Write a sequence for this structure.
């Protein structure tokens, strides 16, 4: 009988759930890798994120929060069957971990191709948040795109409703510059982002309208997402502006 209890205790131990690591933010970066994005532009986008995540102002925003760390994953999305996790979930809490994230981002090959499926991309972001081992005070999906089309897969409206109703915020990076992410489009991309894509409390859109402003836009977006309080993000952004 004693052996039976010992076996039962072992089974309970191994069946018990893994404790979640508490972080200030779970952040999914969904980067456009559709047909309008060539390989050089993929590298340009990744470089912009790598530079932003290792920027001292972004690290200041991270370490100024309650836990002083965030969990981030980088995903390139295209059609409904092509969402590639370029960098798996990583905790960033220092320059060393930020540089490791940036190195992994720049090393990975491109694997996502196809026509726009924004709805599928948003649901992939939700899946990644729901299944990771982190427990964030806030959960955010950040989608970058050079259009608001949805050629296949779930509709944007249905996906957005599913994501936002689960307590996840959707923010956007509207990419307007020809040489860093595809070509200009005929409609107002920012307005489409506001009306159809973003959602949740304090959700926002940041615009990149030239190759020169892409890294700045990514850096600003990350600070706004990472800083827990609006006044913190405003303070950090003002400090950043004074350094230019």
């Amino acid at each position: 009988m004693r052996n039976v209890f010992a076996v039962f205790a072992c089974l309970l131990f191994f069946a018990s759930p893994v404790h979640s690591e508490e972080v200030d933010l779970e952040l999914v970066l969904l980067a456009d890798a559709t047909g309008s994005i060539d390989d050089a532009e993929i590298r340009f986008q990744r470089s912009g994120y790598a530079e932003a995540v290792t920027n001292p102002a972004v690290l200041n925003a991270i370490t100024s929060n309650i836990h002083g760390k965030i969990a981030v994953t980088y995903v390139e999305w295209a059609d409904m069957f092509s969402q590639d996790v370029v960098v798996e979930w990583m905790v960033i809490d220092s320059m060393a971990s930020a540089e490791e994230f940036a190195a992994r981002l720049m090393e990975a090959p491109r694997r996502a191709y196809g026509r726009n499926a924004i709805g599928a991309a948003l649901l992939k972001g939700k899946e990644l948040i729901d299944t990771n081992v982190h427990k964030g005070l806030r959960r955010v999906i950040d989608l970058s795109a050079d259009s608001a089309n949805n050629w296949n897969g779930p509709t944007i409206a249905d996906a957005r409703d599913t994501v936002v109703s689960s307590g996840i915020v959707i923010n956007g990076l509207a990419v307007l510059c020809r040489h860093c992410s595809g070509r200009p489009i005929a409609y107002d991309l920012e307005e489409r982002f506001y009306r159809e894509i973003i959602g949740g409390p304090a959700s926002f859109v940041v615009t990149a309208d030239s190759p020169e402003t892409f890294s700045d836009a990514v850096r600003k977006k990350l600070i706004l997402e990472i800083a827990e309080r609006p006044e913190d993000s405003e303070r950090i952004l003002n400090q950043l502006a004074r350094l230019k």
